[in-house]
Amino acid sequence: MLLSIQDLKVAFRLGERGATTLVPAVSGVSFDIPENSTVALVGESGSGKSVTAMSILNLLPDNARRQGAILYQGRDLLAAGRSELQGLRGREIACVFQDPMGSLNPVFTVGAQLIEPLIKHLGLGRRAALARAESLLAEVGMPEPKRRLSAYPHELSGGQQQRVMIAMALSCEPKLLIADEPTTALDVTIQRQILELIAGLKAKHGMSVLFISHDLGVVGEIADQVVVMRHGRVREQGPVAQIFSAPSDAYTRALLTCRPSLSDTPARLAVIDDQIGDAAPDAVPAKPALVKNPQAPVVLEVRALAKSFFLKHGLFGKREFKAVQGVNFQLRRGHTLGVVGESGSGKTTMGLTLLRLHEPTGGEVIFDGRNLLTLSDRERQAMRRRIQIVFQNPYASLNPRFTIGQTLVEPMTIHAIGADEAEREARARALLVKVGLGPEVMAKYPHEFSGGQRQRVAIARCLTLNPEVLVLDEAVSALDVSVQAQVLNLLRDLQDELGLSYVFISHDLSVVRFMSDEVLVMKDGQVIEQASAAQILASPQQDYTRRLLGAVPRGWVSPGSSPDSC
To answer: Cα–chain-centroid distance for residue 200?
Structure first.
């Protein structure tokens, strides 16, 4: 056995000296990682999976308290000193984290960061280390590896940054790789490449992998063993075939059913708390989705929309980069237009250009009979309240210095909605109830909420202005599948109740299938395919669309059976 975690308990000390409180995060977790195997830790945010993994090399803050045993080749790492752990980190046990840009040093080149562990742990000279670094980049599929050695992290895409992190982790050929949500923020094709890369490197080097994720669809394709965690405890563990074909725990079954499917579109997504009896006693059963009118009036029409960026080229010249080229579509009242594509396809730039958060270089955006792209600043301010946007990152889109009440009241004050402050506050409280939060949160600050709750606040903030169109830019991509299901159900309910129209931008085709009536597929700034959601997913016409669909994780499929579409 390579590593064995036995009755691990982790708690965090909070408060000042003399008045400290221990808050448990992990309670009695036990599982094994055999040699040359992949073990997946699965659970929602707050389940304790990352705390468990980071306990192995004690990469936890100073206020963490660990108990139990973590045996690595017979050595108890909980009793290991700092120097012993430093000898293991990177050399025998390496880590790849979720956010590569947050893990790579922005002021050092890729080459400088790759050669550091080679010099420290293997004693290589600088020239030999650089040669080894180049071969590592080639091994992880980095294009032009020699040139990338002199690049800085910000000059690489997200997928390329993650490849650098994997190359760095593998530089000393570790026996165990800890991969903490390494594909969560990546589009489906890059995610597929990273998953295949990790599986291939595991087989080539004979190492073990501890793969942490909230998505059972992903771990079903890469794991040998699965450990399901919730609230700091192991709910179920076993071989991947057993967990997927016959899960014994209600929580595992709920995780498997709350993810949208590519094969059908239910009226609602399953929500975990409803399935395992944790729902609030006063929860109101949701109404089924309304049948949409295919002849509903067009609220937004986009004609030949274009956006270019001009980059410095040479000493005095400029080079045009066409981010969006000739996009056309119509959006009907109460309908959802899905926009999909890989990172860099232009889908987010298109959404921002609609709202003139990027100034367009051509085209028209017709709303209520007027071209939004030619309005004066005053006219645009009045029109902007009717078209709102929800951004991907709820942590960055809310002002940390404002209470939730201030966040919701401010836009109403700016646009003179409501007779007075009391009426605006009453409306804010009503909207918080509508998005599934209580009026008691008015006095709280964003840091007191989870990611899903913050996204609900962001949606409520948009609703304060009575918008007719919402642009949702990867609004659920950073959320757990369980929280994602709650937010998607909420968006469908609000659309049915208020007649909202959505431009839903996402790289997740299963989510787009659940939400959308029509789908645009974008590549290199252009729309290459456009049809109803069912038609696009059932019979895509373009190879690019077929490749996107083929990259969607399907989970575990029993040998001899045909892959399921969900």
So the answer is: 24
Question: 42, 255 in Cβ contact below 8 A?
Answer: yes
Q: Is residue 388 part of a domain?
A: yes
DSSP secondary structure of 195-264: HHHHHHHHHHHT-EEEEEES-HHHHHHH-SEEEEEETTEEEEEEEHHHHHHS--SHHHHHHHHSS--SS-
Render pLDDT for 40-52 as a digit per residue (tens, 0 to 9): 999 887 788 989 9
Would you say the C-alpha torsion 272, 276, 279, 283 has a positive or negative sign? positive
Measured CA to CA in angstroms, residue 398 lies from 376, 413, 486 at distances of 27, 17, 20
Q: Give the pLDDT confidence of 5-50 residue by residue, as tens digits.
A: 999 999 998 876 655 788 899 999 999 999 999 999 998 877 889 8
Predicted confidence band of residue 101 (pLDDT cuts 50, 70, 90) = confident
* Measured distance CA(566)–CA(556) in Å, rounded: 11
* H or E segment to which residue 157 belongs: none
Can you name the residues that pair with 518 across neighbouring β-strands?
337, 532
What CATH number does residue 91 fall under? 3.40.50.300
Neighbours of 398 (CB within 10 A): 21
Domain that holds residue 522: 333-360+369-550
* Helix/strand/coil (H/E/C) assignment for every residue in 263-304: CCCCCCCCCHHHHHCCCCCCCCCCCCCCCCCCCCCEEEEEEE
Beta bridge pairs of residue 176:
93, 208
Task: Give the H or E element holding residue 509.
Answer: helix 509-515
Rounded-to-integer distance, Cα 170 and Cα 411, Å? 50
Of 257, 281, 297, the last residue of a domain is 257
Q: d(Cα 283, Cα 553) in Å, to the nearest integer?
A: 32
Comparing CA positions, the residue from 5, 15, 521 lying closest to residue 234 is 5
Residue 557 lies in a domain: no
